[in-house]
Amino acid sequence: MKKLMCLMISIMMFIGLVGCGQSKNDTQSSAGDKAVIVMGTNAEFPPFEYREGDNVEGFDVEIAKKVAEKLGVELQIEDMLFDGLIPALEAGKIDFIAAGMSVTEERKQNVDFSNGYYEASQVIIVTKDNDTIKGPEDLKNKKIGVQLGTTGDAEAQNIEGAEVVQFNAGFAAIMDLQNGKVDAVVLDSEPAKNFAAQNDQIKILDVELTQEEYAIAVKKGNTELVDAINSVLEEMKNSGEYDELVKKYFTAE
């Protein structure tokens, strides 16, 4: 009996050691024989990330590919709702967030950010025949469409008397604007320009609600990955590759 018990204990200890050897690293995970790094995003935010067939493409994706290349791993992209990205990062389901995410003090409490890589703003979108909404002061007591969990969502919540309608994607808010279900939409400037370029029924007001900076988010304490991302961003800017991406995605027209 003692021999049997000793044998069982030895087996359990061996299994425990094997399990520990397979734990996920903070910057990459195992998929078969390939090491991968998982990017979390919301592919409803052109030109930063968007669907092209079965693939996710965009400005952020190009940067993420360079990060994976530097680390010598394969890039895997997980497309999810924007407001689910930080919880997924904290839970270890993804390794970093590249989703046109603005740096805010509130988000800094939950994630660490890379250096900023793009300056952005929140803008107001209305229908072209709307002459009553000319600036932020005219949004009081209005029905405003926003993308859930974005800084535009947070900004709209502070407008006096406003009814804020949250959507999972920016284009859904634009559709409700066209259909007269909301009075205006508050959205990040570049996606707003993208939607306006494809839709002659809407316009972007000249005034900007905020000035923001996009950065890549990683799990708290993962300095190794932050350093790698910052190194990639610096290399891309020094080589001119960053400027080429800006031309490709923002000045192609």
Automatic annotation (TrEMBL):
Domain Solute-binding protein family 3/N-terminal: 36-253
UniProt keyword annotations, A-Z: Signal
Localisation: Cell envelope
PROSITE patterns in UniProt: PROKAR_LIPOPROTEIN (PS51257), SBP_BACTERIAL_3 (PS01039)
CDD domains from the UniProt entry: PBP2_Arg_Lys_His (cd13624)
Every Ionotropic glutamate receptor C-terminal domain range: 36-252
One Pfam family, short name: SBP_bac_3
N-terminal signal peptide: 1-21
InterPro entries per record: Iontro_rcpt_C (IPR001320), SBP_3_CS (IPR018313), Solute-binding_3/MltF_N (IPR001638)
Protein name: Basic amino acid ABC transporter substrate-binding protein
Source organism (scientific name): Defluviitalea saccharophila
